[in-house]
Every structure is written in structure tokens, then in C-alpha cells.
Amino acid sequence: MNKQSIGKLSLFLSGLEQRIKDRVDFFKGINVKFKSGTKEYQASISLENGKLKINFNGKTEIGEIEWLSARIAKFAENYETALVLYEERGTTIYIEADNKNVKMSVKETNAKENTDDEKNMYHNETSKIANRDYLVKIGQADDVLKEIGILSDNGKVKNDMIRKYNQIDHFIEILNGLLKRLSEKNETITVLDCGCGKSYLLFVLNYYITEVLKKKSYFIGIDYSETVINASRKMASNLGYNNMEFKIMDIGNYRPDHKINLAISLHACDTATDHAIGVAVNNDVEAVVMVPCCQKEILNQYTYEPFSQVLKHGILKARMADVLTDGIRALLLEGKGYKVSMLEYISPLETPKNLMLIAEKVQNENRKAMDEYRRLKEALGINPTLERVIYKGFETY
After folding, report:
1. Lowest pLDDT segment from 25-34, 52-61, 185-194, 345-354
2. Are residues 273 and 346 in the same domain?
């Protein structure tokens, strides 16, 4: 397998390392199938006493969890393809790698019986419902909560959706102050969701802005998947939400015909997040909320000689790339006059990709931020997509 694919595979595997550590009680095991020509080779990985046990080619290795990425990537160098099957209670993750591409998919599964750990988790999440003062309240938001699958027909939160309900309400809680500021400045709040998927959060935002904040609102969801767009249109129709439209298209091709007040994008992969930010900045959107995912572009570009002995370790270079990618996004947004903040919007136990970027337009330009960006760009030897998207003709800026 070529170096580019090995690097991408390592990046995905490093995410699994953190997932194992965060969800050790749920971890079941990993199976890897390598293939060259017609021959297949199997590796199995289990966890014993806090360490990984790797069986491959008749040999057994015991190592730290942090070794997973480097070890599997090293094996993969000798083969044409690799299929990684990661299993934990309730979730199966597939990573497929070859010389052309590396892709990951996640499948949620419903266990028939709850273990003691799962019962304890259920008890903890149920306690949150009993003790938390929700913004999206059961009894008031039942229609939308039932439509997105949180509530059963009898008005109770489904056992396997308690955590999702808490996440959705926490999302609204984080944005509540921003939504109120937008409400004070605008007669109508228009929200654009870039890569909307099934649009669950967009429906909840519709409920909250319209029925709790009592503001006129309009919502636009765009995604390249016809399946999810059709599902979103059907849910909007079921709810009677006539203030929503959904478009099948690529984020980078979108040209708004409404004044957009808030642009959001959750888990848009790699440079799709940059294109979402670009749509917002180039259309003078007042506020931007992004949850980035799979930062791969800078990983394949940057070097920094003072850190060469640190960055020679692939996993450390990948984690540094994540930090640099989002830090550069923040700096470029600041250069365009946005005030930027970042926070962990959910626990790392849920996902290591839990960083939320929130930006509000406060001025026209910030030349100091742009000068800082120039110096950083030169030091790292990078050419980020976001610069090209929002700073056309940047060299003369």
C-alpha cells in the first residue's frame, strides 16, 4: 500500500486508539484482513489487562493501546488492501484501505440485552433527565422529538436514545446565547446547514427558535445524498414545517438566495468543513458553528523542522495536524473579522472528534491575524483550502 494511504489509515486508527481508551468497558475486539492478489491474511486484536494482544502470521505481540496505529500501518505496507473491523457494544466501525482511497463507515447495532455497565450508563443518563432543566422539554417538544426518533409513541424517551436526547439539548444550550443575540438583531433568523444529513438538529433548532424564542425563522439544508434529503423533506412535511427547504448538492456549489444569519456544519469530512466556512464567510453570514471531522489536508502538507524528532511518530504528527487545522481555521476567520471560540461540545467518551468552533462577525478585517497566519503558513509550508476559498487573490491582500 502506498505512503499516502498508509498515512490516512494511521489517522483513522489513531482515532480508534482514543476510542478504546475512552470506552474500554465496551470494547470487544478488532479483526483485520490484509490482501495481496488472491491471498488473504488475518490479524486479530483483543484487550487483556489494559494492553493489546495482537495475533498475526502465527505470532503474538503484547503492546500498549497507543501502538495500534503504528503496528497495523506497518503490517499494511506489505499488502494491497486492508479491511479493519472494530467492534464495541452497540457499534461496529469499518475502515477500508487500498492504494486509491481510505474510507470509514460506522454501523450502530442494538444489543438485545443490557450488560451491568450498560444498565449503569442507562441509569446515569436517566438521572440527567430527572435532574436537568431541559430547553427542549418533553411535553412541549413531543412532535419533533417523536419525528426524529427520540420519543416513543407513549411520550417516553427511548432507552437507546437517552444519550442522544441529552446531546441535542446540550447543543441548544451551548448555542442559546448566540441564538438570542441573533434574535435581537434580526426580524427573521435564517439557518443554513451544510452537509445536513438527516437534519435532526435542524428540526430541533426550528422548534426552539420558532416556538421557544418566538422568532420568525427559515432553514436550508444541503447535502449531496438524495436519500437523506428525501428523508428530511418527508419529516418536514410530517411536522408541517413549511419554513424549511432541502437541496441535493455539493457544499462548494451552493449560492444562497436568502440572507443567512447562522451557518452550521457537523462532522463534514476534511475540506468539506472549509467549503462550509467559505460559504458562510463569502456571504457575510453573522455566525458560524462548525464541528470538524477527519482533518487530512494539513497532515499531508506540513513540516516543522524544530519538531522533527517528535513528528517522526505518525500518530503524533496526525494529532498535531488536527490541532493545526482547526487553529488555522480560527486564525483565518479572525482575519475576516470574526470572534472565534472553541470548546468540547460533548464528552470525549462519545467521540474524539468533539471540538466545536463558534465564530461571530464583529468587524470587517483583522490585519494582525492575517499577518500571524502568513508567518505560520510559511513556517509550516502549507497551502490550506480555506485560504483559497475565502481569500481569492490572497497574495495581493
Report:
1. 345-354
2. yes
DSSP letters, 74-139, are: HHHTTSSEEEEEEEETTEEEEEEE-SS-EEEEEEE---SS--HHHHHHHHHHHHHHHH---SS-TT
Cell of 201: 438538529
Residue 356, CA distances (Å) to 184, 329, 342 in order = 24, 12, 6
Name the one residue in this structure whose C-alpha cell is 500518530: 315
Q: Distance between CA 362 and CA 357 in Å, rounded?
A: 16
Residue 124 lies in a domain: no
Mapped onto helix, strand or coil, the DSSP state of residue 53 is strand
8 A C-beta contact, residue 381 and residue 324: no
Question: How many of the other CB atoms lie within 10 Å of CB of 239?
Answer: 17
Q: How many domains does the chain have?
A: 2
Residue finishing a domain among 91, 108, 125: 108
- Answer yes or no: do 21 and 60 share one domain: yes
Mean of pLDDT values over 357-384: 93
Distance CA(69)–CA(6), nearest Å, equals 10
Helix (H/G/I), strand (E/B), else coil: 351 = coil
pTM: 0.66
Q: β-strands 216-223, 188-194: how paired?
A: parallel
Contact 234, 148 (CB under 8 A): no
> Does any domain span residue 132?
no
**Is residue 262 a part of any domain in this protein?**
yes
- Judged against a pLDDT cut of 60, whether residue 117 lies above it is answered with no
Residue 227 region by backbone torsions, left for phi larger than 0, else alpha for psi between -120 and 50, else beta:
alpha
Task: Determine, yes or no, domain membership for 10.
Answer: yes
At residue 351, the pLDDT reads: 53
Same domain, 100 and 157: no
- Report phi then psi at 341, rounded to 5: -130, 155
148 — pLDDT class (breaks 50, 70, 90): very high
Same domain for 340 and 250?
yes
How much is the pLDDT for 147? Answer: 94
| C-alpha grid cell, residue 272 | 468539506
Residue 53 belongs to what domain range?
A: 3-108
